Every structure is written in C-alpha cells, then in structure tokens.
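Researcher: Going back to the complex we discussed earlier. I've cleaned up the inputs and rechecked each line, so this should be the final set. Can you rerun the prediction on the complete assembly and write out the structure?
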Amino acid sequence: MIDLVGLIAPNILWIIAIIIGGTLISISVHFISVGGAPAAMAQATGIGTGTVMLAAGAGIAGIIAAGAVMDLNQNLGVVLGAGGVGAMVMLAATMIVATWIYAYGVGVMPVSAKVKYDPITKYRQDLYVSQGTEGHGIPTVAFVSSLLGGLLGGLGAALAYYALMKVGTYAYSGVIPLDVHNLDLVAVVATFTIGFFFINSVIPSYNIVGTIEGFHDPKFKRWPKAAVASFLASIPLGIVAVIAVGALAFVGGL
Amino acid sequence: MTEQKMIPPNTLMAVGAVGGLVCIYLAYFLSQANPIFVFFGALGAVFASIWGADAVRRIASYGLGTGVPSIGLLALGMGIIAVLFGLALDIGPAGPIVAFIVSCAIGAIIGIISKKVVGMTIPIMVSATTEIAGAGALLILGLSIVIAGSLDYGIVVKEVIRTGFIMMIYIAGGMAMLHPHNSNLGPDETQDRLLALSAEKAGIAVVLSGFASVAGMGAIAITVLIGIIIWYVYFGKYYALVKRDAYKVVDTGLLPTEEEMQ
Amino acid sequence: MEPLISMGVLALIGAAATIAGASEDLESDVGSQSNANSQVQLAPQMGYVHRIYNKAIAGEPVSNGLMCTVGSTGALVLIQHFGFSPLFALVIGALIAAMVHGSYSVTAIMGREASQARFKQPIYLDLIRSHTPVIMAFAFLTTFSVEVVSYLLVTSLAHPFPFVLLSFLWGVVVGSVGSATGDVHLGAERQFQQQPFGEGLNASQSGNIVRKAESGLRNGIDNLWFCSKFGGPMTGVSFGMVVFLGTWIILVFDPAKSVAYGWLSNLLGLLIVTVLCIWNWHIEKETREKYGPFKEDKGEEVSA
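Model: Rerun complete. Updated structure for the full complex:
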C-alpha cells in the first residue's frame, strides 16, 4: 500500500489545476459551433459533426501539441499556449475547408439563424437563410466563437497534462524523482489526460443537447450548469489521477 | 418487437459483474502458475462487454441528446482512470476489485451530477452510468491482464501503457460496448441480436490483445484462438438473427415494387 | 535533428496526412457513414427504400480511431516481438486494420437494415459484397497514412507519446476533420441532387435522398465517384493543414531553444488562425454579394 497522504499533500495545487482544467474543457464545448447531423445537410449553422467528437478532435490536437512542447520546454505559459494554439489551428483549418465546401460545393453562404445581425460583422442574417433550414455554413461570429472554444479546450487539456506531469516529476521522500522525458510517465499522463478530456467533453454535450451555434446562441446561457457539473466531477477524478500518476514514482522509472 | 423474450437487466448485470470479476481473478491467480491462463481475463472482458452493451442499449434508448459513441467513450474514460488508480495503490489481489468499485463510484458520481446539476431527465441515468463504468473497468482489467500477463502496476505501465496498447483496449473495448447499439439502431432492434454482436466485437478485441500479449507464445496462441472462435460463433449467430429479423435478405434485386410497399 | 531534415520529414508527414484525409472522407462516402448517414437511415422510414450502404459503425472519429489504433497495434507487435522491418510492419498492420474494419462495416449495415424491417428495407447481399472491399481499401489507405504520420513523428521528430497512442489521437482527429468537412459535400449536395442547387436542405425534404443513378439504382460507389471530385480532396487538404501547420510552428520556432521561442511559435500559430479567420470572413462577404439573399426584405416583420 502506498502512502496516500504523502502523495496528495504536496500536490494540492496541481489537483486544483486539474479541476480548473476540467471546468475549462467543459466551458469550451459550449463555444464550439456545432450543427450536428443537420449541418452536414446544410440545414443548420455550424460545423457538421457532433459536439463531443469535434471538441475531442480539437482538444486532442491541443494535447498532441502540448505533449510535444512539454518535452522541449517546461515553461507553464508556453505549454498552455501550445495546447490552446494547437486546438485553434485544428479548428481553423477544419472550418475554412468546411466553408469552401459550403460556398463552392453546395452553393450556400455562411449564415446564422439564431441572430438577426451578426454581432461581429453586423451583417443581416435572416434574409440569407434558405427556406426550411436553420441557417448553414460557418459565419464569422461562429468562426470566432469556435476559435475561442478551441483556445479554452486546449488550455484546459494542456493544464491537466502539465499538472499531472508536475505530479509525476515531484521529488517524493525516499524515491528518485522521475524525469520529464520518462516515457512511462508521459504515456500514463497522456492516457489520463485523454480519459479526463472525454469525460469532461461528454458532460457539457448532455447540457447542450444536439446543436449550438456559439456564444450568440440562446443555448449558450446554459454553460454555468455544465461548468459546475464538470467542476464537481473533476474533484474525485483529479484526486484519483494524482494518486495513480504519483505512484509511478514509487514503482520507479523502470 | 415487444413479444420478444428479453433477458432482464439484473441477470446480465450478475453475469457481467460476477462472471467478469471471477474470470479476472482466475486469470490473476492461475497465471502465476502458468501464463497460459491469462485467457480467463479475455473471457471476463467478453462478459463485461455484453453487460456494458446492454446497459448502453437501455440508456441510449432514452435519447441522450448526443451520439451513442460518446457514452462508450465516457465509460472507458472512467474505467481507465479507475483501473490505473486501483492498480497504483499496490494492494496486491485487492487491486482489481478496488478498481471495479472505484469505477462504479465514479460512474455513480457522474450519473448523479448529470441528473442533479445538468438536469437530465433519464430515470435510469445513475444506475446505467454506474453499470457502464463498471463494465468499462472490467473490460480494461481483463484485456490488460491478457497483454501484460500480470496486474502488477509496474508491469501494466511498462507493457500496456508505455507501448500505447491501452488505447487499443480503450477503443476496441469501447466499440464492443457502443457499436452494437449504434449499428442496430432502428425500430425493429432486438436484444439478443445486439448482445450477439457485442460478443462478436469483444472477440475481435480479444484476438487483438492476445496478439499483443507478452505472456509467452502459449498464451498468445490460446487467446487468439479463443478470440477467433468467439468471433466466428457469434458472427454466425448474429447473421442468423439478422436473417430472422430482416424484412428479407436477397442476393440482389431491385427496390420493392409499389404493391409490395403498400 | 538538422532543421532542413526535419522540414523534409515534415513535408512527408504533411503528404501522408493529405492522403489520409482524402481516403478517410471517401471511405465514409462509400458507406455513407457519420452525419450524412442520418438521411440514409431516415429514408426508409419516409417510404424511400434504397440501395445505399448504411455503415453506422460509430461516429467517424471513433471508427477511424479504432482502425488506426488496431493498425498500429499490429505494426508495433510485429516490430517489437517478431522483428519485422517498420515499413513492412506498417503495411501488415494496416491490412489487419482493414480486415477488422470490414467486419465492423458488414455488421453495421446488416444491423441497421434488419432493424428497419417494418419499413420493408431489404438487405442486398451483392451491395455488401461489392462495397465492403472498397471500404476496406480506403480504410487500408487511411490507416497506413496515419501510421506513417505517427511513426515519423515518434521516430524522426521525437514526439514523446507512444506510437500507438499517437495513432489513436490522429485517428480521432482525422475522423473529426473528415466528418466536419467532406461529408457536407455528400450530405448537402450528392444525396439531394434533385433539390435546387444553392440552398440548404429544406427540412420537409428530409429522407428524400436520390435513389436512382444515371442508369440503374444509385449505390455508395456512385456517391464515391461524385465526392472524389471535391469533398474528398478538400478533406485531405484540411487534415494535411491540421497536421502540417500544428507541427510546423514548433519546428520553425523550436521551444527547446528558449521560452521566447516557445512564445514565438504560439504567436505564429495565432497568426495562422487569424489569417484563416479573415479568409473565412472574406468568403462570407463574397458569397453574400454574389449569391444574394433568399428572401426579400419586408421591413421588420421577418425575424430570425
């Protein structure tokens, strides 16, 4: 049996960081403009795939970037930035190509059905919505909102990754601390971060129910509920994760 | 298809949880004598997957408001965190059962949070999330012991996680739980067909983890063989049930005529 | 590693990613997976029985994550335990993944169509026999390309994640990209070609997919033919961009040198994102001007 107190006590700060990370991931999902199946038929505004899947795709791009950078430079800001930017690049590249397809393959312009005027470009929206649809494509406001979502999600994932790496490399009494390049540690932390990310992106998708256009969508006002839910769920997950990752230092760097 | 005879959820839960745990413990103790016995872990994973698939079926039939796959990923996400925790405690044979209980607890917490905080109205939310989390943990334990030949934390980390095979368990195991419901979606879905499909997909996961095993050639051969047999038997069973349930299975043909559609 | 060699490796990774994206989208078009599949699923219920492959394995990210993980698991086992050369092992891994994927595809179409018995949707075995090999071939291409991306990242560019884990992650991302971009071309255009071009699908037309081809009945391969001209290649560009740009910003300003370089690489990423955002806005403006509104402005009575 390992020393639980000795594991948790020095890592309170990182448990809090993991909880914040989970909450950020949860909030980020509300920003990402997702039209679900209807968007694939140009029947609703947003990106034509499901909430969890798109958030996962973006967050995972963030985790890949954060993992690569963490190996090179352990500065907190740089790692968090890499996570956020990695997720944003993934979403931006996906959305611009989706816009090409909507504009040149389907022949529709990007338009939102939830607002009359785009809050950013001030363009009139309702006249451009084709009959029988809930908007189509990715207008500027949805694009910017999704980028913000990517930024937050990537930040959250990178924060959880960074915190768990710090937990793993901490010098516990009586053991040789693990190196940040230790492959066992990286693999365990990455696995945990992915599981943690999936849990925290499924919870908000239950809150959203289907589609959301971004921060201008009336559904966006529901975000505090999911944020509280993810906050509460991340507490036990954070503690459990810290113990499992910290215990790695005791079984040794193998 | 209400006239269809259904296996009650409690029976499946008992088979999945008890059968899964017993098989994992058989693998745990017998593999210390001879590594060939890790194949019991694979059988445990198959039981767990059938149980999990039924739980997914029950909860997803209420309409989650998001795709079916998300619940499978949620289940295995909870399972992975709980399993690593249970094994990391370094408490010997109690590890797997602790992992299972912690996973169920995390599932219950997430179920309660989804119900109370997010406000989901699905009545079986808490019990079903608990069940899928438990099944997910058993799947990961069962397939991990097949690959690593042991449930010692250090060995599991070295053989299952450092190599990345944990992700294969994650996704192939998750698919064995979520694919049956997703691919049988429709008004004429039947439980026995869905469960047969779950066993078939678990067979594929068993073959893959047997192939990746480090427990020696004997263990690899017998686990892969068991996986292929499970796959073959249940694929046949599934195809028979498809033929039973389908409107008709034809070699080729045009669309049904107007009169036929009346 | 020498920056020049890193750039060469990165170019190879970008090329492999582009192939992966394109084949991923085409694979999902043959079987009508993912979101566009909701209409294929709905059609029999609305009375439109069809001869189109209904491959509902799971969401595209999940099913692509599965095949890439299975492929790289097979490859890694062959490299580690059996001493195969990496290139050979990657090919065999992709072959295993394609076979597993084929099994998933067959059970998916059979299950979905058997569950639609009351709408009189028959299961056409010739359809399964002709389409499954095509699906497997594209699955092979996708898996192999994603494996190449992951393998090069791990071995040449020193990414710390395990090879199998990285394949899983890129598999999920390629599925995510593919279902967000290329499927729109299938869902909004090809499946509804009898509807006027240049508008979204009217909700009242849901399920009324095109079921007849130039000659005979339309099937998934006819859809593939159409989507391979625009949707598929565009998805390739998209995934290529995701992989290439995401890695490029770290290579240009290597964060290992100093914290300032780390921030520069992040700023470069932000710059790329801003450029793409402006481009999107520009297309929005251009299409609004050229295509024009669908409705007349009747003062304030029209509301969203």
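Model: Worth noting: The mean pLDDT of chain C is 90.
Researcher: Good, that matches what I expected from the previous run.
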